[in-house]
Amino acid sequence: MAHSFSGSLVPCSNMWPSRAKKMITVHIQTLEVDMKFSVPYRATGKEVFDKVTTTMGLRETWYFGLQCAKAGQMWMIDEKRIVDQVYIDDGNKPVQLNLLVKFYPLDVNDLIQDITKHLFFLQVKDQIRSRIIFAPAEVCVMLASYALQAKYGDYDAQKHKIGQLGNEQLIPEQVMNQYLMTKEGWEENVFEWWAEHSSGANIERDREWAELQYLMIAQDLKMFGVNYFLIQNKKGTDLWLGVDAQGLNIYEMENQQKPKIAFPWSEVKNISFQDKKFIIKPVNEKSEEFKFFTKNIRTNRMILQLCVGNHELYARRHKGDTVVVQALKQQAKEDKKRKQMERDKLEKERRAKEDALRQREELELRLRKFEAQARKANDKLQRSEEVAEILEEKVQLAEEEANLLAKRATEAQQEIQRISQENAKNNEENLLLKQRLKELEEISQMAASKAEIGASQAYRLKQELESAREREKVAKCKLMEITQQSVLHDQADIISYIDREESLNNNGDNEEGECARLDDSVQSEEIKSHLNSLKSKMDALKVDRKCDSVEYLDEDKYQTLRRITAGETRSRIAFFHSL
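-> structure tokens emitted (579 positions)
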């Protein structure tokens, strides 16, 4: 494709500092980080751009460009010096430039580096929130859930509560105003899908995964990757020109989502402009030139930049991968494999820690059981000792009582003998003595009976004491057995756990894993199903169903593209001029 340019390039400023200044300060802003450094006064746009991308480690440079922060959408020209393109303050203030996505791929899966995907994600998210890219409510909810997944990781019901993300602008304000729903209601819907992403299939749902899912949904939006410019056809009708990765699209003023006609890059041969007139020569020689008009040369220059860059990417896609792209893909493949191995290692360590914690809890539970059994046995032993002491005291009392009764019996017997002797001596007192004798015999019999009972009770108490002592011995043996068993079990469990830990660590260092990947078509169908379900749920809460001037989901962007590119080029050019 040949590119031509006619007309004069007018710089953004008519006031320049002295050329004696050899260095200028450049302040580069991105949606991720800000950088500030000094460059030579005569540095070109490409030299500054290369310094920025090298600093960031960004190698897919063909998607990005530097934009002047104070000059609208003006992109820096690689070959021209920075000082010839932007205004330099006399106060030596830094030159404000933004590093932004300039060109978009046909499919975000073609992006290779993680830093590239991350910068695309940040810019597209900002464009959707600011309504530069229109998205219906159900898509905004789904995208917000992936944005939270990318920022905070998996959903945690204990950690992430409704209302705690007050500073997060999850849904565009204009979308929220169209529905009878509180901010908490929107958060509830977003959290529901966030929780859905954090569960289910065994996938490492890290930041890169969530950002790619976000971009895969966003790229199906009709305004994704389109740069709009106000133009006029020959009749003077105001129209929108859209430049994107597919080609050139023409829109009516009231509708920037459904193009009326389109010209893919495969039909474009040459692009040029003269003053305010922009000329596109088709590949088909029989077709007339496609001409339109803009309000100023600056707009034509911006259109030409975007057309040239998008056409170069179109040509790149139809050729084999360059050496740089092949190296990037190989490096990305190795990085992905390395990250997967790291994730697998971390997962094994996490599982090992969980197993160790579980075993520790089991050991603690068993230890508590052994301690409870030991306390119980100790209590029984204590009670046995107390019972033994009481029985010993009773035995001692019984023996003393028996001895006392025996002594009384002996004394009674002696008294009988004495009385008998006296009876022999004194017959006169025989009757009285007999009566006294009878009483003494009764007393003697009673004392003997009590002595016998005391002796029997003393024998029984001795038997109980011996039995209590036997039970005490058994309780002590059981306590020693429990204590030794607890120690042996604990030592065996600890040794077994240490052996398993060493085996697990040795095996973990030698194993390699490959990350399982979901089939794209199945995933796409699941996303469509989720979006349709969410749309049905939210339609009932919509305030005014006619608040959007465009019916969004009548057909997707790819069906529209196939329809508006049908037919010959010249017939579409004629249709454009008739608008």
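The longest strand covers residues 23-29.
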